[in-house]
């Protein structure tokens, strides 16, 4: 294609009609909605000239936007040939995201060579809700890659652009659906009444931009889950959540007893749990730390959550949990455990626990390049479900276990930063809850190292609670 940008767009729109990538009539969509317009860019694979024209238009858009990136990645499957054409033309490296990781060989879900921190430009064919782009972004971010921009051939103008931008992804459309309709009407390629019906459809029919639209599924209220909770620790936690109207857990990672107790007292009114790393304390003395932590937790109705991340054979974790200088099983309501050792690690912890103790399995981490792939998450989900007498949920970035019986704690939450330069990746509480399925958000430095900790905890608590109410329809 040659000529100015407007000439290129005009010809591309004609090609979209010529190759029947757009059709007008009456079409029942996947959602059940009847639409007067239907887009199908997949036909481009059968028409090399059309595919080339698409790739050139996308390339022109990325150059006009002055985007800088290390890799291209097409959303599977239609955008893959488009990204491939751009890669071969510009000599820009490409990554390929699989729908599922291979069960053999390298078991990669992302094919291609990259380094943690590399920036990826996502390519998509059509955006309606934006959920497909978000799904690809999540996979890339889990591999330690960075995504801030996406290019789409056609924006249907039904809310997806704003939805993506709220989640930190700038969307750059080559064409808007209204442009296509206007151009075809001006050139008498479609009737005026057809154009009007199509415009009205775009204006009035919007996709569901709800948790279900991005794979989270139905959300139950904390009140209902508290009533049906089977484990006493789950029941206690959910009652606190519902009573205090907060689903915030603050991670207090400090090195002295004084700091730990001072910060805990400040955030106590706004949290359902406080997460600790007591082995970081340089001056730990059980009698000076634990009784005061317990007093604060009882006075302000929150749980004590020791993020020990047990990850050894059963007998070793039994001794670590029930003994040593920390005596964790005596005071921690919840502890974390890695799934790597297998079910034996759960059995070991159980042997040192009482009904007042519970654990959660670390199924996903918020750090760049974490090795928690799909097969690991499935194994963790199985461990959760088969040990419901002790395991009450997961630490994860997605809904690893579907049943509302289990609680999802999501770390890496901060509404001001996207990362810390050391591998940590952040999302705001609204994204953690609506898109990633979080029940309880874990916030650390966003509260403890940024202004007044009590006020910061209040702000995070209010935002997280509002997001959960919205997700449950309350």
TrEMBL record:
<comment type="pathway">
    <text>Pyrimidine metabolism; UMP biosynthesis via de novo pathway; UMP from orotate: step 2/2.</text>
</comment>
<dbReference type="GO" id="GO:0044205">
    <property type="term" value="P:'de novo' UMP biosynthetic process"/>
</dbReference>
<dbReference type="Pfam" id="PF00156">
    <property type="entry name" value="Pribosyltran"/>
</dbReference>
<comment type="similarity">
    <text>In the C-terminal section; belongs to the OMP decarboxylase family.</text>
</comment>
<dbReference type="InterPro" id="IPR014732">
    <property type="entry name" value="OMPdecase"/>
</dbReference>
<dbReference type="InterPro" id="IPR011060">
    <property type="entry name" value="RibuloseP-bd_barrel"/>
</dbReference>
<dbReference type="InterPro" id="IPR018089">
    <property type="entry name" value="OMPdecase_AS"/>
</dbReference>
<keyword id="KW-0665">Pyrimidine biosynthesis</keyword>
<keyword id="KW-0328">Glycosyltransferase</keyword>
<dbReference type="InterPro" id="IPR013785">
    <property type="entry name" value="Aldolase_TIM"/>
</dbReference>
<feature type="active site" description="For OMPdecase activity">
    <location>
        <position position="307"/>
    </location>
</feature>
<dbReference type="InterPro" id="IPR023031">
    <property type="entry name" value="OPRT"/>
</dbReference>
<dbReference type="InterPro" id="IPR004467">
    <property type="entry name" value="Or_phspho_trans_dom"/>
</dbReference>
<protein>
    <recommendedName>
        <fullName>Uridine 5'-monophosphate synthase</fullName>
        <ecNumber>2.4.2.10</ecNumber>
        <ecNumber>4.1.1.23</ecNumber>
    </recommendedName>
</protein>
<dbReference type="Pfam" id="PF00215">
    <property type="entry name" value="OMPdecase"/>
</dbReference>
<feature type="binding site">
    <location>
        <position position="366"/>
    </location>
    <ligand>
        <name>substrate</name>
    </ligand>
</feature>
<dbReference type="GO" id="GO:0004588">
    <property type="term" value="F:orotate phosphoribosyltransferase activity"/>
</dbReference>
<feature type="binding site">
    <location>
        <position position="445"/>
    </location>
    <ligand>
        <name>substrate</name>
    </ligand>
</feature>
<feature type="active site" description="For OMPdecase activity">
    <location>
        <position position="312"/>
    </location>
</feature>
<feature type="binding site">
    <location>
        <position position="253"/>
    </location>
    <ligand>
        <name>substrate</name>
    </ligand>
</feature>
<keyword id="KW-0808">Transferase</keyword>
<dbReference type="InterPro" id="IPR000836">
    <property type="entry name" value="PRTase_dom"/>
</dbReference>
<feature type="domain" description="Orotidine 5'-phosphate decarboxylase">
    <location>
        <begin position="247"/>
        <end position="460"/>
    </location>
</feature>
<feature type="binding site">
    <location>
        <position position="444"/>
    </location>
    <ligand>
        <name>substrate</name>
    </ligand>
</feature>
<comment type="pathway">
    <text>Pyrimidine metabolism; UMP biosynthesis via de novo pathway; UMP from orotate: step 1/2.</text>
</comment>
<feature type="binding site">
    <location>
        <position position="275"/>
    </location>
    <ligand>
        <name>substrate</name>
    </ligand>
</feature>
<dbReference type="InterPro" id="IPR001754">
    <property type="entry name" value="OMPdeCOase_dom"/>
</dbReference>
<keyword id="KW-0210">Decarboxylase</keyword>
<dbReference type="GO" id="GO:0006207">
    <property type="term" value="P:'de novo' pyrimidine nucleobase biosynthetic process"/>
</dbReference>
<dbReference type="InterPro" id="IPR029057">
    <property type="entry name" value="PRTase-like"/>
</dbReference>
<keyword id="KW-0511">Multifunctional enzyme</keyword>
<feature type="binding site">
    <location>
        <position position="424"/>
    </location>
    <ligand>
        <name>substrate</name>
    </ligand>
</feature>
<comment type="similarity">
    <text>In the N-terminal section; belongs to the purine/pyrimidine phosphoribosyltransferase family.</text>
</comment>
<dbReference type="GO" id="GO:0004590">
    <property type="term" value="F:orotidine-5'-phosphate decarboxylase activity"/>
</dbReference>
<keyword id="KW-0456">Lyase</keyword>
<feature type="active site" description="For OMPdecase activity">
    <location>
        <position position="309"/>
    </location>
</feature>
